[in-house]
Specification:
The complex is a heterodimer of chains A (about 425) and B (about 300).
Chain A (H helix, E strand, L loop, with lengths): L2 E11 L4 E10 L2 E3 L11 E5 L4 E4 L1 E6 L12 H11 L1 E6 L10 H14 L3 E4 L15 H7 L4 E2 L8 H14 L3 E3 L4 H4 L4 E2 L2 H6 L3 E2 L2 H17 L3 E3 L5 H12 L4 E5 L2 H4 L21 H12 L5 E2 L8 H4 L16 H12 L5 H8 L1 H7 L14 E11 L18 E11 L2 E5 L1
Parallel strand pairs in A: 1-4, 1-5, 6-7, 7-8, 9-10, 10-13, 11-12, 13-14, 14-15
Antiparallel strand pairs in A: 1-2, 2-3, 5-16, 16-17, 17-18
Helix pairs in contact in A: 2-3, 4-7, 7-8, 8-10
Chain B lengths: L17 H17 L14 E6 L5 H12 L3 E6 L11 H10 L4 E6 L4 H6 L5 E7 L5 H15 L6 E5 L6 H12 L3 E5 L15 E3 L2 H4 L5 E4 L15 H8 L3 H4 L7 E3 L12 H4 L6 H23 L1
Parallel strand pairs in B: 1-2, 1-3, 3-4, 5-6, 5-8, 6-7, 8-9
Helix pairs in contact in B: 1-5, 1-11, 2-11, 5-6, 5-11
Classes of the chains: A alpha/beta (about 425), B alpha/beta (about 300).
């Protein structure tokens, strides 16, 4: 029997409305009560958490691990290591791999690989459509039996509303939520940056806000029609926030997530043509950033995530319009959100931030995670909300370095990550 | 002259201070004079190597740069997309590093991607001159336009300049807007609403969709080539309707003030954005632009080449 005691930390467990200075006990990979460890003598580990927040293990439900198929960008192993270093005990990986997990055997491969080599919990999503092509439904029922937590065509977006409608109806039967990357291909065209002042000045093809909002609206209509949850990924515009707010106030099963780069940066950052500012959806205007902050503050946006999207340097170091979209985020997202949402803009407190990283994704994906209830799996993140540090991409665990935040000075950081009672990363 | 040149590269006019724009124009005065001599060559860049690297087709800009470099006694090598290894899958970065390994001093780049010259300038010791990047900037074209206006009208500040046509996809328009505003001109953009982004109003330009209202007040009309065939989508219904709404026809040209200059970056579509007779008329300075382009490019190569030395 192994026992761990985390002493004198501020235990924040939003699922149980708990926020107090206390000791947290772990016995045999599970959260325990003090009474459970009375007579345990062997393998006692003591962790001093004075001044730290003791939180349920954080969940990032939007991560690209690139494996199978693109292991030069990231692997399940390196991505899980980056997650641990960022304070995440559970990550949900997206299906734009090769092969695409539109079949049960690819899901089985990912799960086998993860259980063999990943130091955090890796939960796969399955494709909505075969080959992410947006035309025919993937075998969603078989994927669910193989262990997916959601379906999504992330990186792609089903343009045919009828196909999407049937996918949502089918997912309701199977009992998996639908995650959607919201992008109308006709409106967006070959857009690479937010359509506005900077796209106009720089002569770069614009990606209009309406290209996202049209699909958010579509998803609201279909969530209502099918009475089944649709989750809008990486929301970036003021209009999307407005649409979600109105729909959620009516009880529609629609939700949204935000990535740190969409509130840390605006489209002004693209003026140096640095491809580490090329993301999809693109960095938006200050008006959009302000609306996203309000959306987080009032609960319209309920989930925080990274959209961790690794690319090799030789892929990113090319002309702006041909570079792939995406940046890595696992090792900076928690710090950026604490720094921006809690400290700088004071939109939410640290308790709500933890809730958005634990209870909210666990509820949407129906995960047995995100709480410190006795008996639950001992996934724990220790956070120092006041630690000031400087981002250095060369210290990243990720196999890639495509971050626009290199050199940023941030306040707040995970200092220890515990998965199933075992410390998998420590600052 | 008190103004000094501080740029290793010429990437665009948006970030070039007005003083340095004027300094190029003044330097070009001296080089224009060289072009009228019997011996048109000066030794300013003797021993320097210039690479004309054109990853997008161009005849007139490449030729103008080549001749400018030759008149400055530089060694010139021309590389175009069809002869470069880009088609073999080599990245722009690797191609450029190979060119630098040959000790090029100046790289003149034409590229279909906005920002490609900046990408190279950030990575190379050689001077990078932007000869047009996507829809972003074409600074030497705008400088020669400014030079031509200044030469003919004696000034730029206070003049009313209309830029007509496809603004959205035009690097010539962008560089002209930035340069003209810095030197104090009033700029009006004219064209179909789909091709004239309203965001430009934030820079202080006016936008009009009625060319007949704009022409009588203009001191300069700069017509952009309409490239209907190049548009990815239907931004306007067709050439016929374009001519009806925006073409500088003989009838419309009568609205112009007698001293209004008619400019065009070329190559012109006779009978589309400009009527053939108007292009050849007394108010047209289209060929002066070509001549001045040589002097302006000599000035730019001389100034940037001097910095990189």
């Amino acid at each position: 029997m192994s026992t761990t005691t985390i002493r004198n930390g501020r235990v924040v467990d939003p699922a149980n409305k708990r926020d107090e200075i206390a000791d947290l006990y772990i016995v045999d990979q599970r959260i325990a009560q003090k009474s459970d460890i009375r007579d345990q003598k062997s393998d006692i580990e003591e962790i001093d958490a004075k001044g730290l927040i003791v939180a349920p293990g954080l969940i990032d439900m939007h991560v690209h691990l690139r494996e199978p198929g693109f292991s030069h960008k990231e692997t399940i192993e390196s991505g899980a290591r980056a997650a641990a270093a960022g304070g995440f005990t559970t990550i949900v990986c997206m299906p734009n791999t090769s092969p695409v997990p539109d079949n049960a055997s690819t899901i089985a491969w990912i799960r086998d690989r993860a259980s063999a080599i990943a130091r955090v919990n890796v939960l796969p999503t399955g494709a909505i459509s075969k080959g992410l092509a947006g035309e025919e439904l993937a075998p969603i029922g078989s994927l669910a039996q193989a262990g997916i937590v959601a379906i999504t065509d992330d990186g792609h977006c089903i343009q045919n509303h009828e196909v999407m409608r049937r996918a949502v109806e089918y997912a309701r039967m199977v009992g998996v939520p639908v995650l959607d990357h919201c992008q109308d291909y006709n409106l967006v065209g070959n857009g690479v940056v937010h359509e506005g002042y900077w796209s106009t000045l720089l002569g770069l093809p614009g990606w209009p806000a309406a290209g996202e909002e049209a699909i958010v609206m579509r998803n609201i209509l279909l969530a209502e029609l099918c009475n089944h949850p649709i989750h809008c990924q990486h929301i970036s515009t003021a209009g999307s926030v407005r649409l979600l707010r109105e729909a959620r106030s009516r009880g529609v099963k629609i939700s949204g997530e935000v990535c740190p780069h969409h509130i840390a940066l605006t489209d002004e950052a693209v003026q140096n043509f640095d491809t580490n500012h090329k993301v999809n959806p693109p960095l938006r205007s200050q008006t959009d950033v302000d609306a996203l902050l309000e959306g987080v503050a009032d609960g319209t946006i309920s989930i925080l995530c990274s959209d961790h999207a690794p690319h090799a340097d030789f892929e990113k170091e090319v002309e702006f319009d041909v570079a792939p979209f995406g940046i890595i985020g696992l090792e900076t997202e928690l710090a950026l959100f604490i720094d921006l949402l809690v400290h700088k803009h004071a939109k939410i407190d640290i308790v709500r931030l933890i809730e958005m990283y634990t209870v909210e994704p666990a509820r949407l994906l129906k995960l047995d995670a995100g709480t410190l209830s006795p008996g639950s799996r001992a996934d724990v993140t220790l956070i120092d909300p006041a630690l000031t540090w400087t981002v250095n991409v060369d210290e990243f665990q990720s196999a890639s370095r495509n971050s626009p935040f290199d050199g940023w000075k941030l306040k707040g950081r995970a200092v220890r990550t515990i998965v199933g009672g075992t410390t998998v990363w420590k600052l | 002259m008190t103004t000094r040149w501080t740029q290793k590269d010429l990437l665009g006019l948006r970030e070039l201070p007005a003083e340095e724009i004027n300094f190029v124009l003044e330097t070009a005065d001296a080089f224009k004079q060289v072009g009228t001599r019997e011996i048109k060559k000066v030794p300013a860049l003797r021993g320097k190597t210039l690479m004309n690297f054109f990853v997008e087709p161009s005849t007139r800009t490449r030729t103008s740069f080549e001749l400018a470099a030759l008149r400055l006694s530089a060694d010139v090598i021309n590389i175009s997309a069809t002869t470069s290894s880009l088609t073999k899958g080599e990245t722009l970065k690797d191609t450029a590093r190979n060119l630098e390994a040959l000790h090029a001093d100046i790289l003149v780049l034409r590229h279909s991607s906005a920002g490609a010259p900046q990408f190279l300038a950030n990575r190379l010791k050689a001077s990078v001159i932007n000869a047009g990047d996507g829809a972003h900037e074409h600074p030497t074209q705008a400088l020669l336009d400014l030079y031509t206006i200044r030469e003919r009208r004696g000034k730029i500040a206070g003049l009313r300049v209309a830029i007509v046509g496809d603004i959205l996809f035009s690097r010539v328009a962008r560089s002209n807007i930035f340069g003209l505003l810095k030197l104090g001109a009033h700029v009006t953009l004219v064209g179909p609403s789909t091709l004239v982004p309203r965001e430009f109003e934030k820079l202080g330009v006016e936008i009009s969709h009625k060319i007949d209202d704009v022409l009588p007040k203009a001191d300069v009309v700069n017509l952009l080539r309409i490239q209907h065939e190049r548009q990815r989508r239907e931004y306007f219904p067709g050439i016929g309707e374009y001519i009806r709404l925006f073409g500088l026809t003989k009838e419309r040209a009568k609205l112009l003030k007698p001293d209004c200059l008619i400019m065009h970056p070329g190559p012109i579509n006779r009978g589309v954005e400009i009527d053939s007779a108007v292009a050849d008329g007394l108010q047209s300075v289209i060929l002066d632009q070509v001549t001045n382009g040589l002097a302006v490019r000599m000035a730019v190569l001389y100034l940037c080449g001097g910095i990189s030395a």
